[in-house]
Structure formats: structure tokens, C-alpha cells
Design goal:
alpha/beta, Aspartate Aminotransferase, domain 1, Aspartate Aminotransferase, domain 2, 2 domains, three-stranded antiparallel beta sheet, 16 strands, 40% helix, binds ligand F0G
Length: 482
């Protein structure tokens, strides 16, 4: 993206690509959307994509591919073992991150499974800036626990702090001292911290974590799934890095880590994942699990076509024009919503625009899942599908009590290069309308609640008939418009 200045003096995000393949979308009438949401058990994961106008559920596996990625897919070398396609990916990762070993996996959580099985022992602790749902589930499944040591600003919804994803270094030292270094499985940094609104950390903060890890002899593991956004923010917000290239910043980050794992559904704009490992010793510890869970060491559960696309996607991630597209669209959306008084996470981060459902729906108690409720209302109001990132995405404690999330966010993800600015402006308009009618929106209650990762396929119902009233108000305000 080029953030160009207009004649009026205002700035405008300008796409540095053109669209050459399109997919038709459906915008169903509001009554249909209400019915579809009911059929989906008021869980946006259970909607049919055919019924969704703007799919802002996630940026995972749905970023637009480039012509170069598509072309590379045709050159894939389909062999079970020793595929040239795999060698190309391995070389690209080595070229960018400089780590000698790579373990391919079919997606990010598969990498987490392997890491947790090998490094997490019962009673061990994993300090991290913030958890991600699947990461925490794997650590807990292996008998470990998670300690979140995000800096204070990280949990403030509105802030001027440019690096809300930073780890609080004093808290990290205290955590290691109080548990004892022997109990620490590894220290985890999640770049582009997902659940607090795609918020970045600084290079300086990562370097400080490295110092602490060196002092106590601990492994520093990075979840690099959202690295692309974080690279952009380091380049644009960290004064010491402004003259560094994206490649230089990438290498500096990698040099501070022992392990970098990632979901290539995000990093690399295709579908897959893997673990970059610095030492032979660590590589050998994990290697055996790849053929067991994923597939042979030269594909790891990924199709060779996807591997080719990741290899090119990683190269394109080193281009500032490419990685700025998501953050600049998100900034546009955040700025427009702030101007309309809608509570959102600031500063704008990566991944998507995050609406603060706790304030948006301050009359809905957390036990009635305000972010989940707002997600259903958003779909009914505009055919826009978001994802709940709040209490619904947490797991109950062993006694069955709700674990109330620190934040109740409705995430409207911005898959890279997928939407136009007019589609984003349409979403902004419908959110604005919903905010003006927020009193109509009520809570949700589970009708079917799975024990693990309940947000994926749990089913819920509205508390009362608020959705009917919302549909009626939509018709009153918009007439026969979609
Ligand atoms: N780590 C982070 C930070 C993630 O955001 C994700 C996925 C994963 C690990 C797991 O990767 O999906 O390839 O298995 N995040 C997706 C999302 C699901 O919508 O935010 P995966």
C-alpha cells in the first residue's frame, strides 16, 4: 500500500495491486440473515459462507494470493520424499530467518502440538506476552500452564502505546524467579498479538526477553503467525528501525529466537505451517513427531502446491507495499469508527478491526457473551461475519465456572488484499447503525456447549426476542434496501 496524500491534505490508503480474479458475493435480505443466524446456533463459525457478504471471520487461509503464487503452484514437485518443492521452502526460510532446521506441519496448531509434547512437562509453566486459544489448549493438555505477562497497556482498550504486545520484562523475571527456571518449559512471544487486537511488540522488547532467557538458560520461542503485520509496525513505529529493510528486521527478530513456529495460513498467504529451529539438538527432539502426526519430513501434511505458494508468499512478505495493505485498511476502519464514537481497540493493530463489545453493549453481562451477541447482530445488520474474541473463546475452569475474558472483542478480520475500500466503508456504515441501536441488542445463552474450544461449534440462543426487534428496526430504517 502507498499511504498517499490527497490534494485536500488528507491521507488515503492506495492499493499497490490490481484485482484479476473475482468471486461473486451474496447479500441476503435481513430476514434471511436472521434465519441463517438462528440455523447456525448464533455462532458465526457455523454460518454457510454462501450466506455471508463480507467474511471477516479470520485472515487465516483466506488472504488473496498473487499471480506469482498461483504460477508457482503449477511447478510443484509431487513426490512423497525429497520433493524439490520442499527444498525451495526450506531454502527460503533459511534465507529469511537464518535458522538451520525446519519441520513442516499442516497448520499452526500442529506445530503447537509438537512443541508442547516435546517441551511441556506436567507442572511446567510457559510465560508469554499473551495466550492464543490453540496454543494454551496444547500447553494445558500436556500438563503445563500459561502465565500472561503482557505490559499494562496491552489490556487497555484505548491507548497511544505503539507496542501494546510487549512483554513486561520485570514480570517475566519475577515469574521465572518465583517458579524457578527449571519449571519454565520455554518463554513464548506471540508477534502481532492476536487476542488483544493484533497488537505488535517492538524489536527492543524482544531483545530484552532474549537477555532474560540467556541469563536463566531458557528457550525463546516465537509464534510468528502474525509476523507480517508486526514487521510493518516495527518499521513504521520503532524509531531505531525506520531505516532498516523488512528483510533486515526479519533477520534481527529471528536472531533473537531459538525457535519460530507459524501458521502459513497467515504468514506466507497460503495454507500450512511449520517450525524453524536453530539447533540440531532441538530439531532431533521434535523430528520424530512430524511423520507421526503430519506426514513425511518433506511435506508435513501440506500439499506441494501450497508449499510453493508459501515459498513465494514469504518472499512477498518482505515487501513493504504488500505487508502494509492490511494495517492501512484496518487503520482506515478504526479511524472512521472512532470518528463515529464507536468503541474500538486503539491504536489500530494488524489482523483486523476490534470492536470493544464490553463498552458497545455495556448493558449485557459478560456471562451472556456480549462479543458473541454483537457478532450475531453484526451479521443480521449487514451480512458481515466477525469472530467473538472474549469469554465465549475461553474455557470454563475445572469447577465449571466461567473464565471471564480480560476483553470482550468482536474481531472483524481484514484478510490481505481481499476487500475493496467501498466494502470496508459499507461495514463501517452498518456498525454505525448498530451502535445507534445498541440498546436493542441483548445477550446469548448456550444451548449446546462443547468442553474444549467451545467457540468453534457450540450453539447458542438469544436471551429474549431482541433479534426480532433488530430486524424490525432495520426494515423501518432502511426500507427495502439490503
Ligand atoms: N498462533 C496464532 C497467533 C494464531 O493466530 C493462530 C491461528 C494459530 C497460532 C494457529 O494456527 O490456525 O494454522 O492452526 N489463528 C486463526 C485466527 C485461527 O483466526 O486468528 P492454525
Amino acid at each position: 500500500m502507498a499511504n498517499v496524500r490527497l490534494f485536500s491534505g488528507a491521507k488515503m490508503p492506495l492499493e499497490m495491486h490490481k484485482v484479476r480474479i473475482v468471486q461473486k458475493l451474496n447479500l441476503r435480505p435481513v430476514e434471511y440473515r436472521h434465519e441463517a443466524m438462528t440455523a447456525a446456533g448464533n455462532n458465526t463459525f457455523l454460518l454457510q459462507n454462501d450466506d455471508v457478504f463480507l467474511d471477516m471471520l479470520t485472515d487465516s487461509g483466506v488472504n488473496a494470493m498473487s499471480d506469482r503464487q498461483q504460477a508457482a503452484m503449477l511447478t510443484a514437485d509431487d513426490s512423497y520424499a525429497g520433493s524439490a518443492t520442499y527444498t525451495r521452502l526450506e531454502s527460503r526460510l533459511h534465507e529469511i530467518f537464518g535458522m538451520d532446521y525446519f519441520l513442516p506441519t499442516h497448520q499452526g496448531r500442529a506445530a503447537e502440538n509438537i512443541l508442547a509434547q516435546v517441551l511441556v512437562t506436567p507442572g511446567s509453566v510457559v510465560p508469554m506476552n499473551y495466550h492464543f486459544t490453540t496454543t494454551k489448549a496444547h500447553i494445558v493438555l500436556n500438563g503445563g500452564s500459561v502465565e500472561e505477562l503482557i505490559c499494562d497497556a496491552g489490556l487497555e482498550i484505548t491507548s497511544d502505546e505503539p507496542f501494546k504486545g510487549n512483554m513486561d520484562i520485570d514480570k517475566l523475571v519475577a515469574c521465572i524467579e518465583s517458579n524457578g527456571p527449571d519449571k519454565i518449559a520455554f518463554v513464548r512471544m506471540e508477534t502481532g498479538t492476536n487476542l488483544i487486537g493484533g497488537q505488535p511488540h517492538s524489536l527492543e522488547n524482544l531483545a530484552a526477553m532474549r537477555e532474560v532467557c540467556d541469563k536463566y538458560g531458557l528457550l525463546l520461542v516465537m509464534d510468528a503467525s502474525l509476523l507480517a503485520d508486526n514487521l510493518y509496525f516495527i518499521k513504521t513505529r520503532e524509531a531505531a528501525c525506520k531505516d532498516m529493510s523488512i528483510r533486515e528486521i526479519s533477520r534481527r527478530i529471528a536472531d533473537l529466537c531459538d525457535i519460530m513456529y507459524f501458521s502459513a495460513r497467515k504468514l506466507g498467504c497460503a495454507r500450512g505451517g511449520g517450525i524453524c529451529v536453530r539447533t540440531d539438538e532441538l530439531y532431533r527432539l521434535m523430528r520424530g513427531l512430524v511423520p507421526l502426526y503430519e506426514g513425511f519430513l518433506t511435506y508435513g501434511g501440506m500439499s506441494v502446491r501450497e508449499i510453493e505458494a508459501i515459498t513465494v508468499g514469504l518472499d512477498e512478505t518482505m515487501d513493504e507495499d504488500m505487508i502494509s495493505q492490511g494495517p492501512q485498511f484496518i487503520e482506515h476502519m478504526v479511524d472512521q469508527l472512532v470518528a463515529r464514537g464507536v468503541p474500538v481497540v486503539t491504536p489500530a493493530g494488524g489482523l483486523g478491526c476490534h470492536i470493544d463489545a464490553m463498552r458497545f453493549l455495556d448493558h449485557v453481562p459478560q456471562t451472556e457473551y456480549p462479543a458473541g451477541a454483537l457478532g450475531t447482530a453484526m451479521y443480521i445488520a449487514g451480512g458481515v461475519r466477525g469472530m467473538e474474541r472474549g469469554t465465549l473463546s475461553e474455557q470454563r475452569d475445572p469447577d465449571g465456572n466461567e473464565t471471564l475474558a480480560n476483553m470482550e472483542l468482536l474481531r472483524l478480520a481484514m484478510p490481505r488484499r481481499v476487500f475493496t475500500l467501498s466494502q470496508v466503508d459499507y461495514a463501517i456504515d452498518r456498525i454505525d447503525w448498530l451502535y445507534q441501536n445498541r440498546d436493542l441488542v441483548g445477550g446469548l445463552v448456550f444451548t449446546e456447549e462443547p468442553e474444549i474450544l467451545r467457540f468453534f461449534y457450540g450453539r447458542l440462543a438469544p436471551v429474549g426476542d431482541w433479534q426480532d426487534k433488530l430486524v424490525a428496526k432495520f426494515r423501518a430504517d432502511f426500507g427495502d434496501s439490503l
